[in-house]
Amino acid sequence: MQADAVVMLDSGNMDIPSTWLRPRAEIIYCAPTQETGLDERGTSAWEKKKEMTLYLIDLEISRAQVAKPVDQLATEIGLLPEELESYGRNKAKVRLSLLDRLHSQPDGKYVLVAGITPTPLGEGKSTVTVGLVQALSAHLKLNSFACLRQPSQGPTFGVKGGAAGGGYAQVIPMEEFNLHLTGDIHAITAANNLVAAAIDARILHEATQSDKALFKRLVPSVNGVRKFSPIQISRLRRLGINKTDPESLTSQEISNFVRLDLDPKKITWQRVVDTNDRFLRKITIGQASTEKGQIRETGFDIAVASEIMAILALADSLEDMKNRLARMVVGTSHSGLPVTAEDLGVSGALAVLMKDAIKPTLMQTLEGTPVFVHAGPFANIAHGNSSVLADKLALKLVGRDGFVVTEAGFGADIGMEKFFNIKCRASGLRPNVVVLVATVRALKMHGGGPHVSAGSPLPREYIDENLSLVAGGCQSNLKKQIQIAQQFGVPVVVALNVFKTDTQAEIDLVCQIARECGAFDALPCNHWAQGGRGSVALAQAVKQAASKPSNFQFLYHSEMPIVEKIRTIAQRVYGADDIDLSLEAQTKIDYYNQQGYGSLPICMAKTHLSLSHMPDKKGAPTGFVLPIRDVRASVGAGFIYPLVGTMSTMPGLPTRPCFYDIDLDPATEEITGLF
C-alpha cells in the first residue's frame, strides 16, 4: 500500500483488489517474452511497457529533478555575471543591457505554439512548448529557448491549475513557477491600484477645493519657492501652456492646469487583484463619511487583465514602457477629453514600481533547457502572449541556427491572431513556423461529443475509440485553425498531444487529415511521458519547416477603419457572416477616431471556447453575426478592444476549487496538490 507502482510478472488475468493499493498507484502487467533485444533507441520491450503505463504526479516529477544552479545555466547560454540578478538558487532576472551587447548577433528561428479551440481543461500548449525545446536542445543539439507567460494565481487556485507544462515536459521548480515567481504580477497589482487610488483622490480634492487651494497644494512652496515637477511641465505643454514659472500663470491657466474634471461615470480604470473573486465584479466605493459623498460604482479585474500587464508584454525597452504607462487613458473629462496617467502625475511612480518587472525571469525545463518566463496577459480578455523583450533576448542568445519557441494563449483564432496582428506589429519580429496543438479529446468535442466540465469525469466518448467524432473535429475545427494560420503566410506543423486513452487508429487519422487540410506535417507527441525524446519527430519537422521561406503578412492594414478591422477578424478568422455593432460600440468608435486612435490594432475580447461568441457552439460554426456590445481602448498598450457578447474580466471560483488539494508540510516545507 506504500507503492507508487506495482509490477505484476506473469500474473495471467489476475485482478488486484483496489484495497491493496494507495490512490493513484499504477499497475504494470509484464509477461515473460523471448524478445529480449533492444530497439533502435536501446529500449527493451519491458521498458516500453513501463514508459507507456507509469505516470507520476507533475509535482513529484518536478521535485525529483535537481535543477542546475541558475548561475551555471546563465553561463551555459552566454550571459555575463553582471547581466544576471539572482532570486535564490533557481531563477534570476536578466538585465536588458544584454540587447545592447548582442545587437549585432543574428536572430534565431522564431516558432509560435498555438492550438485548436480548447476544452475547458486546456490541451497542453505549454507542455508541447517545453517538450519541443527539450527535443531541439537535448536531442537535436540545437540552441533553443522557450518563452512562456507567468501564470495567474486565479487559475492556479481555481480550476485549471498552473501553467508549467506537465509530466516530463515542464518548467522547474514548478512550485516557484506557478506561485509568486519574482513578483512581477504583484508589481503590476501595486501599480494598477496606485492609479485607481490617484483617480479617486483627485476627484475628491477637486470637488472640495478651489482652484487657488488646489494650485498651492499641487505646486507647494519649498523654502519660499514654487517649482513645477517635470511631469507637471509635461501636462502644461499638452495644455499649450509654454511656461515654467508657477507665478506667471493666469487664473484661467491655473484652472486648466489643476482641474482634470474627470467624469465619474466615464472612468474606465478598475482596481485589480490576482484572485478569482466574483463578488468584486461590481462594488461601491467612497461610502465612508470622510470621502464627503464621493460615492460611485466600480469593480475589480483580475490582475493579468490590467492594461499594465499588456504594456509589460509589448514594451521593447524601459523608456518605451515608461512612455506607454504615461499614455494610459483612465477616463474622460466632462468636456469629453481623455485623461491619462501622466495627467494624474503618477506615470513616473508607475515606472519605478515596474522597473524590475520589465526584466524577464530565467528558469529551466526538466531537461535543463533555458526558459524565459515573462508577462501573463489572458488571451480572451487581452492579447495573450509572453513579452516582446523575452523573445528578443532569447532570439539573440540562441544565434542564427537556434530556435525560440513561444506560446500564444487558447486557440489559434484567439492567441495566434493577436500574436500576429498585435505582438508582431509591436516587435517587428516575424515567425518562421506555427505549431498547432491538438488533442484527440478536443477533436471529439468539436466533432459532436458531449459537454466537458472541468472537475467532472470525462464521458466515455472521450475515453473509448470513436473515429467518427475524431474525423468530425478534424474536418471542422482543426481544418479551420490551419486555414487561419495559413492566411498569415506561415507554415503549420500540427502537434497531436497524445493522451493514454488515445488509440493508434485515432492518432493516425488526425495526422492524415491534418496533412490533407494543408499542414506542412502532423505528428504525435509523447513528451508528457517521455520528455524531449517524445517530441524528436516534431522537432525535426519544425526544423525542416523553418528552413522554408516565410511569406508572413498581416491580416489587415493598420490604417483600415476600426469597424473594417473588426469585421475582417470576424469574417476571416471566426467565420462570421458579419458584425452587429451596438449603439454604444459605434459611439465609442466615433470617439476614438476623433481622438486619433483609429490606426491602433484590434484585440478582440471573446470567449475562447468557440470560434463564435457562443461557448457551446463547437467545431467551425457558420451563419452567425458577431455582436459587438462595447469597444474600449488601451491606448498605452496600443490596441482597441471590442467586447464580444458577455465577457467578464474577473473570473469566479467553482464549487470545488483547486485550493482544496493544496497544502504545506510544516516539517519539510514541501507543497502538495499543485498541478
From TrEMBL:
<keyword id="KW-0436">Ligase</keyword>
<comment type="similarity">
    <text>In the N-terminal section; belongs to the tetrahydrofolate dehydrogenase/cyclohydrolase family.</text>
</comment>
<dbReference type="GO" id="GO:0035999">
    <property type="term" value="P:tetrahydrofolate interconversion"/>
</dbReference>
<dbReference type="InterPro" id="IPR000559">
    <property type="entry name" value="Formate_THF_ligase"/>
</dbReference>
<comment type="subunit">
    <text>Homodimer.</text>
</comment>
<comment type="pathway">
    <text>One-carbon metabolism; tetrahydrofolate interconversion.</text>
</comment>
<dbReference type="InterPro" id="IPR020628">
    <property type="entry name" value="Formate_THF_ligase_CS"/>
</dbReference>
<dbReference type="InterPro" id="IPR027417">
    <property type="entry name" value="P-loop_NTPase"/>
</dbReference>
<protein>
    <recommendedName>
        <fullName>formate--tetrahydrofolate ligase</fullName>
        <ecNumber>6.3.4.3</ecNumber>
    </recommendedName>
</protein>
<dbReference type="Pfam" id="PF01268">
    <property type="entry name" value="FTHFS"/>
</dbReference>
<keyword id="KW-0067">ATP-binding</keyword>
<dbReference type="GO" id="GO:0005524">
    <property type="term" value="F:ATP binding"/>
</dbReference>
<dbReference type="GO" id="GO:0004329">
    <property type="term" value="F:formate-tetrahydrofolate ligase activity"/>
</dbReference>
<dbReference type="GO" id="GO:0005737">
    <property type="term" value="C:cytoplasm"/>
</dbReference>
<dbReference type="GO" id="GO:0046394">
    <property type="term" value="P:carboxylic acid biosynthetic process"/>
</dbReference>
<keyword id="KW-0554">One-carbon metabolism</keyword>
<keyword id="KW-0547">Nucleotide-binding</keyword>
<comment type="similarity">
    <text>In the C-terminal section; belongs to the formate--tetrahydrofolate ligase family.</text>
</comment>
